[in-house]
Structures are given as structure tokens and as C-alpha cells.
């Protein structure tokens, strides 16, 4: 009888070069594209497929934006689930652990628990007025952390009870693999949604900057590329990196200028309980009102005028684009290292010519966290809806004393 | 390259074999660390009783140490929690090195400690900002550090992340990713829970002492009940545990929790939240005890009246909560222990380390505590404490005027709704 765990220990600790390759991904390009491009040589055909799929993805992106915030949330959620699935599947293949008892159910169960926890903490804040009216939801919100913890514990105990003598090590590996994956995919996707609620522009500009950096770095590399950038990704070059950086900053600058004019993109997303819809209407904040900036003398000659009208947000967009170009690629290098470590070419075959969803989104993860941290540190103060929710939970006497304190403060400032 | 391959081929023992796996530098946990003093004192007894005595003496030593620390106050307790955390992290990471023979990976040891530092910095910053608010606002450098805290922590973490990516070496990708994953899971377990413990501590020392004591009591009681009455095995993972020990331990722990809470609820130094006094620059525990810690009359259910002989009993409400805490410590806490046992079996180690003679490493003592700490924190947040009104006012003051007005009006409408503001409706 072959000892499964013995075989796996060998697999686990052998040098990288001894690990057998996962069979190459099957070609999932749709028939129609194949026939249309049958005339061209293989190199151009690949380029065309990538190009067409890129345009298709960008169009889907614009369509979803048009459909509104709720659809965007659903899209983010679907992408998160798909990325999670891709990474877990790689874990199964690496460890041949597809048949471990309970393991598949437990992975999905943990995904559900963590999502439940995060949605309850963040999204529920925005629906405060909706929730106030319904008793059952109030109960769920008040004891939310306890319920989430109890759900997680159930999964933990089931894991402990499912430990099987010959497979301990494997089960612990998959447990850890699941948790690290959750940490990466689920937390970042919730940060993306929080950025979205801050205003669609905080969602669109970072994502577009990363995509733009990808494309322009590729193009600059294609035409001018000579000096390799890093051993991990031999196709990347310094020329592409620097060219991509400058193009992305310019792109971000111009794109922000366009988006900042529309309330639809600039206003925080709010849930209107009367119409039961998301609305984005508000008085645009200072960030999105044109201001005159003095042009430094160096650029005056170039631009020909002493002052320029800009949105303050465009300054922030420079910071975002810089991060997307300089640090964002490290997310890509991390994913490349991961693929080499586990001998896979792509995370999955979902998108012909591009690989899996995770392949497209590897650089986005760092970006999402950065944008969130940036917003909380430099842009916005505490979240008013969260504050309101906490106020409403206080004891009545505490509420009264807080009310009096607030009233005297507001009167003192002349607002009341 | 061939030497490393040979070394790796030796590492193919399956779960059922008992070959020793380790050839790497870190110590193998089988040497006898018992101090000479104890060895000489117990040299007459048989080895079974000797082991029992060593364990017993060390248990008493640890409990005494625990009491001393409690006496010394919150600051020392915080420091001890921090030290325990670092030691647990070190133990688990060392196991990772042993498992993967990765002691010599470039940068890796430095990066592990760096990540530990970053995550601790982040959590301590959040805690310090909450509890030391006025102190932080006064000192200019602290104020800036606190305002941009998340950004600074994130930048520090990112630096470590980029260093990791740049340190990836061609033949060791998989190993490096494993160690990266191992470090992060360890951080998740060890560092987050130790900060939850500190939060519990700040809520009032009783919230720190009672849970930890219940877990220790359950350990000891389950062992004794199992020793004297144990017959039916509980779970394959830990063959020494028995159902008799489990159930006996449960009842004993609930009783112990009730008694300990009764004794502790009488003293302010245990029941009051820890606060930082700006004028004396030290921690104080002085307050008006909350409702939880004031004696109340409870009606005894009829069933128990005949047994106990009284109609009512005077108890602290906290004792009711202690039943919940003890129940968790006895029923779910052991799962943390089973998890650690499974982990040790998976990686073929007897103990996490050799730090405490007769007991193993620090992690061996604290494995059940981790789930408990999280539970207590969630319990407090859900059932005991509401949001802190003064903190809410502080947050309010940082909002924009239009947001302030909106919140004020909503609160006013809510209070009017509840009938609390009806008669005060003036400008």
C-alpha cells in the first residue's frame, strides 16, 4: 500500500527542480476567434487574442460602471470568490489533497464565515436606516461579532474533529493555505468595496491606473525594452517600468480631471431607504472643486500661463498613480514567484490568452489596501454612519448626555 | 546541490514511522532540562513519581509567578503578555525552520522578526491611541504618529513585503513561500490573540484573570479526574484524555469560576477598567464599580431551593457571566489543545520547545488560551460593554460641520421618538 503521506513528504521537501510540472493548460480560446485569426502567424495570433480579450474586459468594466454601485459590488464579490477558488484549486493540485475528508466543504464554509463577518462590519453601516426598521436585522447587527465568531468556531471544531491519522500534515497545510488565501483575497476585496462607497472615483482611478501601467509598461517594453528588470519576470524591462510610470501618472491626471466633474463618480454612495436604491448625489467636497494653482516657474515657460485650474483630487491621483507604477508591480512579482514556486504557468484558464482571474488581479491587491489606507489617513475622518450606529446603541442616559454635549458644541461653533 | 538533495531525501518519514527527522541546527526537544537542584532532591523516587513531582513543582512555581505579576500591576502584566507572545512566535517559527531545513534561507530570519515588529507596532499603536488619547494629543511627535498611524504601519509592512519579493532565490522559491505563509499564519494566531488579551486586561483585570484561571483549572481538574476515574477515551488525537476527565473538569471549572469571581468582584483593583492618569503618568484602577459588580438578590429556582435551603441568594451579576466563560473554557477551549496536539503529531514533535521542564514550551501551556482570549473579547464587545461615549464625542468633533449637523438631528429625532426629549424641546 502506497503511503500517501510519504509520497507527499517527498513532494514537499524536494528541491524546486524535482517537482513534476502540472500539465500545461488546455487551449480554451473560443472557436470563433480561432477561425477569424487562422490566417495569421502564431505570434500575431496570440497578440490579437490578448488584444481582443483586453478590449472585451474593458468594455465589460464600462458596462458595469454604467449599471451602478450595486452591480459593481456584486462584480467585486464574484471576482473574490473566483480568485479564492483558483488559489485553493492550486493548493489541491500541489498536495493531491482533492479527496481529503471534509476539506472542500470546510474551505467554502470558511469563505462564507469571513465574508459574513466583513459584510456585517462594513456594509451594514451604510444600511443603518434600513436596519433600524427591522427587528430581526437589529438583533443580527447587535450581536454580529459574536455570531460570526460562533460560526468560525464551528468550522474550527469540525476541522479538529476531521483530522485523520495518516493525513495530519496535509490537513494542516490546507488549513493554513485556506487562511492565507482568505487573508489575501477576502480582506482586500472588502477594502475595494469600502473604497467604492467612498465614491466611485476612488474605485475607478486606482484600478485604471494599475491596468494602464500594465498596458503601457508592456508597450514601452515591446518597443524600447532592453535592460531586464528582475530575474523573477524576465519579460519586464527597466524601459518598460519607467515609461509605464510616466504614462500612468499622466493618464491618472487626465482621467481624474474627467471623472471629477460628475457627481455620479465623486459622491459617496448612499442607500436611500425610501426608494430602496443606491444614490450618489451630494454637494461635491472640496477635493472636487476647481482651484487655482500657481505653476512653478520651471513649468511656466512650458505651459505658457502662470496659474492653472485643477481639482485638488488630481494631486492625490499623482500619489495613487505613483504607487500603482512603482509598488503595484511587486504584487505581480509576488504572483510570478508563486507560480514558479508551484510550477504553474497561469492560475487558471478562465480568460483565453490571459490566464485566470487572479492573473489579472494580482497587482490590484496591494493597490486596494493602499487606497484604503490613503483615504483613512489623508482624506476622510471617521465614518459618520458608523458613528451614528454606535450612538444609537448607547444607553438612553448616555445618549442624552452626549446629545447635550453635542448641542453645546454646535451652538458654540455657530452651526446651530 | 546534491548534498541538499540527500538531506531532503532523509525527510521522507510518513506519519506512521517514528524516525527522527531533524538534521538542522536548532535543538531537538528531548534533552533533560530539569535543574540540578530538583534532580538531586528527587533522585530517590521512581521515574514515574519523579516526573509527577517535577510537573507539580513547576506548576506551583508558574502559579506563584502569576500571582506575583498580578500584584505588580497592569504595566508588568502587559510586558509579560508581550514576552509570552514573542516566545510563542519564536517557538513556532523555529519549528518551521526545522520542518523545512530553511534555517539558512537568505534574509528569512530577519524578515520574520521584522514582520513581528510591524504587526506589533500596528496593534500597539491602535491600542495606545485608544487608551492614552489625552497623552497622545499632548505630545507633538506622538500626535503625528497617531494621526498617520495606519499609513506608517502599512508602509513598514510593504517594505518587508518588497524585501521578501526581492529576496526570492531561484532554487528556493517554494520554500520561501512556505516560510512566508508560515510566518503570516503564526502572526495571525499569536499576535492578534495577545492583543485581544491586553484589551481584555484594560477592561478590568478580572476579565484577564478569570478566563486564564478557568483554562488552567480545567487543565488540572480534567487531568485529576482522568487520573482517578478515567476510562473512556475522548478523542483519537490525544489518547490520554478521557470523557470522565472532560465532564468532571467541566463541572469543577464552573464551580471554581463562580467562587473565584465571587472573591474577586469585591475588590476595585480587579473590577475597574485600567486607566492612564495624565497627571501622575501611571495606571490607575479606581472607579465606581459598575452594575456587574454590585451584589444583587437572585431568586433560586424551586428545584434547587430544597437542596440549598434558601429562597434567595446574593450574587454578583458577573458570576452569571463567569458561568459562560467557564463553560467555554471547558467545552471549546480543549479544541485549541487538540489543534496543537494534531499540529505536533503532523510535524512529529513531542513538545513545542524545552523551556519549562516537565511541561515543554511556552506554547504548550498557552495553546488552550488562544481561543479563550478571542472568546472573552468577543463576549465583552457583544454583551458587556457598549461603545465609549467620550470616545464617540471625540470622533464627532473631527467630522465636518454638515456631517455633525446630520448626526445631531438624527440623534435628536431618535431621542424624541423614545420620549426622552419631549419636554425639553427648546432652542
UniProtKB/TrEMBL annotation, chain A:
It is an enzyme of class 2 (transferase). The keyword Acetylation does not apply. One of its GO terms (cellular component) is endoplasmic reticulum membrane. InterPro entries: PC_trans, PC_Trfase_euk. Pfam families: CTP_transf_1 (PF01148). The chain crosses the membrane at residues 47-79, 100-119, 139-161, 173-193, 199-225, 237-260, 313-335. Its EC number is 2.7.7.41. It is found in: Membrane. GO terms for biological process: CDP-diacylglycerol biosynthetic process. The keyword 4Fe-4S does not apply. This is Phosphatidate cytidylyltransferase.
From TrEMBL, chain B:
It catalyses: 1,2-di-(9Z-octadecenoyl)-sn-glycero-3-phosphate + CTP + H(+) = 1,2-di-(9Z-octadecenoyl)-sn-glycero-3-cytidine-5'-diphosphate + diphosphate; 1,2-di-(5Z,8Z,11Z,14Z)-eicosatetraenoyl-sn-glycero-3-phosphate + CTP + H(+) = 1,2-di-(5Z,8Z,11Z,14Z-eicosatetraenoyl)-sn-glycero-3-cytidine-5'-diphosphate + diphosphate; a 1,2-diacyl-sn-glycero-3-phosphate + CTP + H(+) = a CDP-1,2-diacyl-sn-glycerol + diphosphate; 1-octadecanoyl-2-(5Z,8Z,11Z,14Z-eicosatetraenoyl)-sn-glycero-3-phosphate + CTP + H(+) = 1-octadecanoyl-2-(5Z,8Z,11Z,14Z-eicosatetraenoyl)-sn-glycero-3-cytidine-5'-diphosphate + diphosphate. InterPro entries: PC_trans, PC_Trfase_euk. PANTHER family: PHOSPHATIDATE CYTIDYLYLTRANSFERASE (PTHR13773), PHOSPHATIDATE CYTIDYLYLTRANSFERASE 2 (PTHR13773:SF4). Pathway: Lipid metabolism; Phospholipid metabolism; CDP-diacylglycerol biosynthesis; CDP-diacylglycerol from sn-glycerol 3-phosphate: step 3/3. GO terms for cellular component: endoplasmic reticulum membrane. It comes from Pedionomus torquatus (Plains-wanderer). This is Phosphatidate cytidylyltransferase. It is found in: Membrane. Belongs to the CDS family. The chain crosses the membrane at residues 107-124, 151-169, 176-198, 204-230, 242-264, 318-340. Residues 1-34 are annotated as: Disordered. It is an enzyme of class 2 (transferase). GO terms for biological process: CDP-diacylglycerol biosynthetic process. Keywords: Lipid biosynthesis, Lipid metabolism, Membrane, Nucleotidyltransferase, Phospholipid biosynthesis, Phospholipid metabolism, Transferase, Transmembrane, Transmembrane helix. Its EC number is 2.7.7.41. Residues 1-20 have a biased composition (Basic and acidic residues). It is a multi-pass membrane protein. GO terms for molecular function: phosphatidate cytidylyltransferase activity.
